[in-house]
Give the backbone structure.
Amino acid sequence: MSGTTADVARSGARIALAGDSGCPHRLLTVFAEQDCEALARMRGYFAHSPPSEPSFAPFKDGEPVHFLPRQIIERRDADAARVPADLRSGFD
């Protein structure tokens, strides 16, 4: 293991956002223990999936186009380059 899931997620996001094309115009963060209303709204988009921290969800026109849950990020920790690739596929 190369670090915690949160470490892999942060590194992957940094790398994915460093590219010139296809990056989101806005970035939002929802913290589970901080804003219950925002968390409920976000989880409403992914009612079919169990709660997942950390996770990523690129949106387009107010709707999610991709979801990268913790379970996928955890499997990527041996190859951190795969998280940015997964995120970029959601950006595209």
